[in-house]
Write a structure and sequence with these properties.
elongated; 19 strands; 6-stranded mixed beta sheet; single chain; binds manganese (II) ion
Length: 361
């Protein structure tokens, strides 16, 4: 089903005559590129794009089936929308209440003629199209080869920041537009910080180092975490004092992936990981969700959380990323992106998840 056909069916269910789409993430499937500027206005009969001079020719070249309107100082958004509203007789108009600022919402209420209805438009992005899955696969492929590159690159004595710079440079060489979020490189005791952005800290032999990063490819994100043992101190990974902690996280991650299938609830997948970590005595050291949906945004709904009762459906893509964090000692997190298939889950990364050492070995 086409994007507009699906959206119009959903708008009918929501009992609105049209919707103003203003967020970058929800405009992207219509525009074919990512921008915070402009608006998409979809009604039962027409689809409009309102955009200023800077984007007009690119939108004209990339889209078809949309009526284009040039935003100008003399013809602002409210004037164009009100004209469309009058021509098409729209009475109830949806908007993205979660994405619009209080100030903009107030202004629209004062200047737009129809009744404005807050719509949870993000819901429509939960099941990915084949085309979207292909783009996310490519974003994941880039992250996957980057993880192996960076494992070989890391040497004791390097700063976390140098590692992050190499990682992001390499992803761009492989076709990424940019990193999908600030790269996390957390070594040694900093590994206990679940979101420890790369710092000046020097990486030391024998420490664990957690890398959490992603590539953005044609507007779609990947998200990947691997924890490595820094070479130069132990001859086998099993000699690391945190080896058992690593194994516990890995077992929890595999148990959660095993629980992913259509019809399973998100909270049951979270429980699969959380119960294993809790049974191993580390329950209080796993203080975040097991995962989240991913797509145009790095973090989308649903979530693998203790409270999310959403039932999984084929075509959803989510991360599975349990972790254990020990203050003063370090931490471990392992994250894959999985596609919910008709029969279970497909992991989109190839890299092994046993505790690997850095360097060429
Ligand atoms: Mn993640």
């Amino acid at each position: 089903m086409s994007l507009l056909t699906e959206l119009r069916g959903w708008l009918r269910q929501q009992q609105v005559d049209g919707v103003i789409i203003s967020s970058r993430q929800n405009k992207l499937p219509h525009l074919g590129f990512s921008t915070a500027s402009g608006y998409v206005l979809v009604t039962q009969h027409n689809a409009h794009i309102l955009v200023d001079f800077r984007y007009f020719s690119e939108v004209a070249a990339r889209t078809h089936g949309y009526q284009l309107h040039l935003l100008e100082a003399s013809r602002p958004m409210s004037a164009i929308v009100n004209q469309i509203v009058a021509e098409e007789g729209l009475q109830r108009l949806g908007f993205e209440g979660e994405q619009v600022s209080w100030q903009t919402g107030k202004q629209w209420q004062d200047t737009l003629t129809p009744k404005l209805i807050n719509l949870p438009l993000d819901e429509l992005r939960q099941i990915k199209t084949g085309e979207e899955i292909a783009l996310i696969r490519e974003a994941c492929r880039i992250a996957d080869i980057t993880a192996e590159h960076i494992r070989r690159f890391i040497q004791p004595g390097m700063q976390e920041r140098e590692v992050a710079a190499e990682l992001e440079w390499f992803m761009k060489q492989q076709g990424a537009e940019k990193a999908s979020f600030d790269t996390i490189v957390a070594s040694g005791a900093r590994g206990a910080l679940p979101h420890g952005k790369a710092s000046d800290k020097v990486i030391v032999a024998g420490e664990l180092v957690t890398l959490d990063f992603g590539a953005q490819y044609q507007g779609y994100c990947s998200d990947m975490t691997r924890t490595f043992l820094v070479a130069g101190r132990y001859s086998h990974a099993s000699e690391s004092p945190l080896y058992q902690v690593y194994q516990t996280v890995l077992e929890a991650q595999l148990a959660a992936i095993e629980a992913v299938r259509p019809g399973a609830s998100c909270q049951s997948v979270d429980a699969a990981a959380r119960e294993h970590i809790t049974r191993s005595g580390y329950g209080p050291n796993f203080g975040h969700n097991t995962g989240h949906a991913i797509g145009i945004d790095v973090h989308e709904n649903p979530r693998f959380s203790p409270t999310d009762t959403t039932l999984l459906r084929a075509g959803m893509l989510l991360t599975v990323e349990p972790g254990i964090y020990l203050a003063g000692e370090g931490g471990v997190r392992i994250e894959d992106v999985v596609l919910v298939t008709e029969s279970g889950a497909e992991v989109l990364y190839q890299m092994p998840k046993t505790l690997l050492m850095t360097g060429e070995a």
